Amino acid sequence: MKLSTIVVSVGLACSLFGCGGGGSSGSTVNNSNTNTAGSTPPATEAAHWGLSRVEPSEVSLRQAEVDAVLDHIFSDAATQSALVSKDGYVVGERYAEGFDAESLGTSWSVAKSFYSAAMGVAIKEGHFTSVTQPASEVLTEFVGTDKEAITLEQILRMRSGLASNTNVFFSGDQTAHALANTLTSEPGSRFDYSNANSQLFEPLLARATGMDAHSYLSEKILRPIGIDPTNVGMWLDETGTQPMTYCCLDMRPDDFLRFGLLFARDGRWQDTQVVPADYVSASLNPIGFYGYQWWAMNEDYFDEPVRGDIKSAIGLNGQRVIIWPEHDIVVVVLTQYHHFANQGYVLNLQSGTVNFPDTCTGRNSCIGAGDRPGSTGPQVRTYDLYDLVDLIVNLAED
Hints:
By secondary structure, the chain is α+β, with helices and mostly antiparallel strands. It has a single domain (4-396), classed as 3-Layer(aba) Sandwich (Beta-lactamase). It is built from 14 helices and 12 strands. A 7-stranded antiparallel β-sheet has the order 1-3-2-12-11-10-9, with helices on both faces. The chain has a 3-stranded antiparallel β-sheet with strand order 4-6-5. Helix 3 (63-73) packs antiparallel against helix 14 and helix 4 (111-124) crosses helix 9 (213-222). The two termini are 29 Å apart. Residues 1-40 and 42-46 have low confidence and may be disordered.
């Protein structure tokens, strides 16, 4: 089995609601929104960063190959939206029936890449000395334990040695759960994907910067790249006070695209170096197939040869921000999302008042809880990620 068919389910150990993939179901594609093209791309710097809509030919791409990417993505009937950009211009977009460019999607584990970026800024600002700093200098709970030598870089690379699959999502106080997580291997010795590992960004950022992780992300990453945080849903754990830093930012597709463009362009946004270039480089430079909370779509990942040097932020149920820096290409994919802003963004898994980032309804994979019925019928099967990467490579390579 390809790793790509497994990774969708490791974003969160979501056993309560069964937010996984598989099967097939129907969803109508709004093909009228495939491309809202304009005239020849303006030469202004603002337009180059502004996600203006143009025809693929105006940035030296072929319409048929852009359509092939969108068609493949929408072979997954649970897809909500997909965007393709080249050189800062949107050359293709498509939305499922009932959704549009203003519809929020949720990130699930794509959020890990955002909070990793915030860590990079915090290092630049001197809140941490470097990625080699022991986390225990901030996380004092680790002092005098077998976790004392874990470095920031080991946390960033999922090589901390901390236990994976600990069900942090269901733990109530998720930061306390993450801090109490047990060491299962020598730090630095192996890759173990762990949501609890990335929840450590919450206390690291709060204690080092004096700002909660949501506020720090908003001021240092989102606002500088043109995302209004008041239009972003930022989830808190069940305490109602602690940001979830491995998960769950609700944004428009264009906003996810902005973040992808930031990393495709070495952390620069217009004339501002938002994230240090060397930190971006390290983020996208994997050990095996994983960097600093970014995945490499390489031979180690797929276990077969791959064209192109493509990286991706990946979240549960099919959320993706895919970047190809060499060709300034970004692709965003979001799964159908069912959540109203007036429900709020405090996780609640208690009977009668369940509130969580719901992509399992679109995927037809929810497990019943409390007064919430479970899904019936087959789960919606996703597209082949290897094939998607190959189609993206076709955009720029003959």
